[in-house]
């Protein structure tokens, strides 16, 4: 079965009601590995060989983080810069990650409508994520749309719990081979695979 690696990066987890709720529902599954990057590397001194070894052992890579200035928090960017090395992940001989799948689990304070051409931010979420998408495809991996929790400041407890349950179901679906990159074609977000109103 596919193995899933969740790389979690939140520099202020103690302030995040949303990510705490997601982590409380994190599934205990033999094929799902959780790694808190800020806990592992408080000094930003990323162990490149260890991280590359973990990537080798997993088939689906999940970057879970809040959207920071339309991108990833600094430690996740540091991880990407160092771990996805030239000659290993891309470039001449860089084929180690070929065929693996990558998607993000994102939290944002802004509502979904603010991430449109007419909205407050002026661009779509897809457009903001293009640099990360190109990073993934350059490394010969499959890029999937994100699972997104928008407007987190306005989410009630019950709705937040539904999101957390769907998040856990999504990870298990990938770990058990019931979801894969082919099912994401044409989707704007992975939320469409796990709708909140589903029983």
Could you explain the architecture of this structure?
It contains 7 helices and 6 strands; from the N terminus they run βαβααβαβααββα. With 199 residues, the protein is an alpha/beta fold.
What is the strand and helix layout of this fold?
Elements: E1 4-8, H1 17-24, E2 32-36, H2 37-40, H3 48-57, E3 60-66, H4 74-83, E4 101-107, H5 125-128, H6 130-138, E5 142-143, E6 147-149, H7 157-175
Helix pairs in contact: 1-7
Instruction: State the CATH topology.
Output: Rossmann fold
Q: What's the number of helices?
A: 7
Q: How many runs of DSSP E, i.e. beta strands?
A: 6
Shape: globular
The assigned CATH architecture is: 3-Layer(aba) Sandwich
- Helix percentage range: 25-40%
End-to-end gap: 26 Å
Radius of gyration equals 16 Å
Proportion of residues in β-strands: 5-15%
CATH C-level class is Alpha Beta
Task: Name its key features.
six-stranded parallel β-sheet, 32% helix, Rossmann fold, 199 residues, 6 strands
In short:
The chain has 199 residues and is an alpha/beta fold.
């Amino acid at each position: 079965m596919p193995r899933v690696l969740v790389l979690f990066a939140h520099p202020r987890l103690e302030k995040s009601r949303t990510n705490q709720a997601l982590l409380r529902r994190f599934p205990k599954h033999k094929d799902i590995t959780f790694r808190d990057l800020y806990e592992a590397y408080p000094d930003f001194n990323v162990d490149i060989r260890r991280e590359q070894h973990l990537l080798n052992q997993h088939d689906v890579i999940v970057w879970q983080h809040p959207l920071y200035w339309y991108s990833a928090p600094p430690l996740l960017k540091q991880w990407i810069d160092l771990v996805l090395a030239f000659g290993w992940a891309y470039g001449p001989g860089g084929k180690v990650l070929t065929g693996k799948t990558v998607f993000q689990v994102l939290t944002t304070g802004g509502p979904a409508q603010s991430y449109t051409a007419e909205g407050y931010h002026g661009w779509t979420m897809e457009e903001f994520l293009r640099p990360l998408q190109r990073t993934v495809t350059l490394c010969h991996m499959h890029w999937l749309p994100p699972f997104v929790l928008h407007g987190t400041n306005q989410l009630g407890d019950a709705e937040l719990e539904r999101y957390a349950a769907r998040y856990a179901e999504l990870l298990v679906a990938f770990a058990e081979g019931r979801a894969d990159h082919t099912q994401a074609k044409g989707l704007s977000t992975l939320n469409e695979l796990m709708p909140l109103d589903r029983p």
